[in-house]
Protein 1
Amino acid sequence: MEQTWSRYLGYTLAALAGTTLIGLYFGYPLYGLFAGLVLYLLWSLHQIRRLAQWLSDPDTAGEAPQSIGIWGDLFERLHKLNKNYLRTQDELRTRIDRIQESTNAMRDGVIMTNARGALEWWNGSAEHLLGFRRSTDQGQYIYNLIRTPAFKAYFDSMDYREPLELHSPAKPHIHLQIQISLFGNNDRLIVAKDVTRLHQLEQMRRDFVSNVSHEMRTPLTVISGYLETLVDNADDLPPKWRRAINTMATQSFRMETLISDLILLSRIETGDQTENNEPTDIGRLITQICQDAQTLSGENQHDIRLEAISPQQLTGDENQLRSAFSNLIFNAVKYTPAKGRIRVSWFTDHKGGHLSVKDTGAGIDEVHIPRLTERFYRADPSRHKDTGGTGLGLAIVKHVLINHDGSLEIKSRFGEGSEFICHFPAERLASQTTD
Ligand code: ADP
């Protein structure tokens, strides 16, 4: 560039020297120089005018003006720059069009909002699933269009590890799963998936289990009743029948427990929220359960103690909470060897209420911990024969906690005992008891 510039300076000076020499020939060198400068100025002004005209032409893709010297070079460079710019713009537009076409072809609704939730862009499926309209909804706040309070809370929470399920605001029969991702400056990319079919199948599965359990309950009660009578009159039976009758009675008792757990689980699962939402005295509840646990422990003489009891009550369904806490406390008895220690506490802090059940029992290998709340999952399948468990206890606990906006934390080491903690949010804590 420096070289070209020196060359053009050389040409200009040479031209001015030429006009000065012509002036000198006529005896007026200064007039010659002046005339050269004026001509150069006029030519430059003309080039500037051509440049201005070319730049103001909307069709700037057209050929640039031709010229010589530094102006010719300048026009050439600007023309190249302009061509590159237009090509990049074309490429970007094609790419954006393709992305929009592909997202439009998606069956999931895709929505982009800014950090405050104002709609910026959405695809065709979002219009179909959520009822957004391009003519009126551009720039609207998304939570004014999806008015479910759970959605607003989810949107503001900034914690999008778990998806949210809700009914479509436009077509209530459509069940949607919403997943939000953050990008840019806290802008949101929202994906709405139609999970209606999955939801129906899940509902069918629940109904099936619930119906089968209810249907089986009556015949089983009859069989158990007869078996109980036979066990009571075992002395009248031939000796070879006694063992068989006793085994049948034990197994029918196990089946009854299993069926009542299945019925309880499906009731807890299907209830949208808790059936009764009333302040529950957790201290009283766990004191009763611990007394029952001591009876269950019997000859094993576990050392069961309540360590802390906060007077604060918990808003919820007492029956569901009783099922959850008894499952945890009875499990501690089942999985702790004789004379082991079991500590139960109910305490509150700024995060909410916490119920902890700690034992010095068998403990659980950490590989099993994430799966313990699955139905029929057992850390050690051989163990359930001794305990007579159904494998549904922790699944019941999990669903009761979901119904109470809570969560279950499991701390355990194989051979070193376990601690199960139910966490409840502060909003669920009711005022203190007066007595
Ligand atoms: P189960 O009827 O088999 O007790 P649960 O759902 O209550 O079913 O528990 C699932 C599994 O978790 C149990 O089979 C057992 O392996 C393990 N478990 C639960 N509580 C404890 C505990 N306190 N100590 C050790 N293992 C436990």
Protein 2
Amino acid sequence: MNSPTRFTLKDFRASAAAGKKLAMLTCYDFTTARLLAKAGMKMLLVGDSAANVILGHDSTIPITQTFLATLACAVRRGAPDALVMVDMPFGTCLSTSSGARNAAEMVKLSGCDCVKIETTRGHLGLIQRLADAGIAVFAHLGLMPQSVGVMGGYKAQGRSAMDAYAIAELAGDAVNAGAAGILLEAVPPEVSELVTQQLDVPIIGCGAGPACHAHVVVVHDILGLSEFVPKFAPRLCDVATPIVNAATKYVKDIESGKYPAKNHAYQMPADESRALKAEAKKVGIEIKGK
Ligand code: KIV
């Protein structure tokens, strides 16, 4: 059952209309979702960037819908009050009918509130079909990592007036088709200013300038867990160093015999311990414990 206190799409629309700014982070697991919810994060994206930061691939292409849906379920459990958005992975929206089937399956399996589709003109029919079916879709425009082959690398988009206008035009067409909102990735601030002024839906930016109603980045990037961090992601702490330090100490403590110590052991009642030692002695084994 949906949490009655969940931050919904309706709340997001109201927040955007009131000119408030919202924080969103990617999230891929239960524990992090719980911590981010505790920090007041109202919106989480189960991004296909999980292919990079969870699975270690060098692109988002290999991730499967089943895997991402499983991660999204964990995020949903960790943050029942958050608006959870899930990416439709590469190859799941090749046609309107397969895309509609896959998106419905994603919502069903993951319990997410909306899906995000890296959108070209060819997806407008799908967006309309999903909107008709009551599935909220965010159209992802600008840099679309699933199209890295076509885009010729992970480069900022919309840097010429013509390209910027083309993005804004497609954003408008996606909204006319029924998109609940737009996500703009790696575009100059002028593009998001144009899109936010032109459209009446929430606009999420990922390296898209301050005009957007919400801003999302990959959680690993702000925590200092990523080796490569895009220029737009703020590095807010260094979680990697304490993890490496703790693991180094664990290795040393085991190798030196410092761990496990007496206080880490389960206790056996003294008479049971005596009985076990006596039985073991009969077969030539000496137990020293306690
Ligand atoms: O998968 C992802 O992480 C994204 C970005 C917008 C951050 O789609």
